[in-house]
Amino acid sequence: MGQSALQTLFGDPFAVMNTIGLVAFALVGASKAIREEFDLFGITIVGLAMAFAGGATRDLLVTRIPLALQSPVEIGLGLLGVGLAVTLSIVLPTPDTHPVTVVSDAIGLAAFTTAGAIVATEAGVSAFGIVAIGTINAVGGGAFADILLDRPPFILFEDFYASCAVLGGIAYWLAGTVGVAEGTAAGVCAGVVVVTRLAAVTFSWNLPTVQTLRCSE
Amino acid sequence: MGQSALQTLFGDPFAVMNTIGLVAFALVGASKAIREEFDLFGITIVGLAMAFAGGATRDLLVTRIPLALQSPVEIGLGLLGVGLAVTLSIVLPTPDTHPVTVVSDAIGLAAFTTAGAIVATEAGVSAFGIVAIGTINAVGGGAFADILLDRPPFILFEDFYASCAVLGGIAYWLAGTVGVAEGTAAGVCAGVVVVTRLAAVTFSWNLPTVQTLRCSE
Amino acid sequence: MGQSALQTLFGDPFAVMNTIGLVAFALVGASKAIREEFDLFGITIVGLAMAFAGGATRDLLVTRIPLALQSPVEIGLGLLGVGLAVTLSIVLPTPDTHPVTVVSDAIGLAAFTTAGAIVATEAGVSAFGIVAIGTINAVGGGAFADILLDRPPFILFEDFYASCAVLGGIAYWLAGTVGVAEGTAAGVCAGVVVVTRLAAVTFSWNLPTVQTLRCSE
Questions:
Q1: The pLDDT value given to residue B126
Q2: Which of B108, C23, C92, C111 has the fewest Cβ atoms within 10 Å of its own Cβ atom?
Q3: ipTM of the complex
Q4: Closest residue of C to B125, CA-based?
């Protein structure tokens, strides 16, 4: 990557977040497929699907051709994440539940929430649209990977996962409303998602069910 | 809602059908999630997903940004339906199979078939396109909710469910072909769907399988 | 079909491939639904879904209204495939695993890979985009049919299925890069997919898993 590409990267919050998210989620998706004993082709497909599905859905929702189909850089970043996962799987005993994978997942969640919120804001959608597109960008890849792995995607709702993306999207919208610069809003959004997600994993946070409410009456 | 908003509502068949469908399907989706003991966040997500998935798919098929991401009113209507479901679940013993939910489902099916047929007609697609987009608008939300709930969406085909939307779409197209006004065509379409759906539930209608045809030879 | 329609067909590689793919995949999808004892409506829906889902996804990815919703010819071809499947199911004992269905599936896979690669090339996406859209066009219908049938779509990755579409997409892109005419590139692509797919079925090809790599160290 030349100097001008680096300048573009650091001056463009979307490019930073998208790059981080692609590598992190490709690693997580490929690790899941490795645990399920998929072949190398399947591992690559699940890794790339987890990296690209959220962003492709985001792009379709704002009616543009998915970035992943237009830029050769994106596929390279996805393959880098898959390669990292394969390397980790040879070194570590249980790569899919290892802290490296759990932290990668939180980082990918934060990066893609932010990338989605930035694209949504540029497309001029409503406040709900910003939060929804940020959340879909963040959780779409994991949900699609779960479908490919034949696991119920609603596990996303069992713990504090999509909720973190929703909070991040709200933070991004609030930051934009009070007039903060795009780069700062991006940092706030990513920070909220990573901190709430890692706290939820560490302290096993849960939300109440209607059954809980009914019992306590 | 001010007087001019009310005038818009009654003068605009799409707005009427879309409003009814959003509240009805959010109620049904949230009721399904309550039965599965989802947490409050999951209930809200499944309710909103059932309300918005069909219309979002419709909008993508005619290549426009989903209405739900542009209008803050839509999310409010979805949350109203979720709130009704939570209230019902505290009052009723089995909210997801209660007549209130079954009738809400039939009304939502009818309203969204009509909303889809109106948008498809405006987009200038073929007769098949009108029926297909009406049906997708109507059954897409329920199918997506079933996927989130880890239930097979083909239950849509087990009884006379999607068939009702197909009949409604054909009725809308026929009404348009013979020169009826949009509002009347919308009423005919919604009426056909509600009546056939409630009749199918009441009389347990079924379509023949190939195995039936083979046996009777 | 009049003479000018035939001329259009033979002078337009996309139309040829799309026509073949629609009939072949509708036959395969309907055969799967017949095995699962779906009713006639369900059989038609699964057949049409298998025929249209890949192409509709392709059209959404290049942001145009799906062809299937605009052209009445497409639905006719899909219904023809469904009719063939119902006829076969009365004649043959196990239509879904019969060589006729297996070969139809390979032909549909080849035809839709080629149709997708042609549309992607016209949309001006990257080399990865051509391979990805060709593969999605080819495997999207089968994956969607599996979801409707409540079977895990990752069976697509268990044997050499999607891999054949990837190889075909690469062949199409290579042929285009060396300056071959569109019709020739289409023939090369379709040939690569059919030959590798039928060889994989005949010789039970498999790709290595990471576990295999780990054991052999």
A1: 92
A2: C92
A3: 0.74
A4: C70
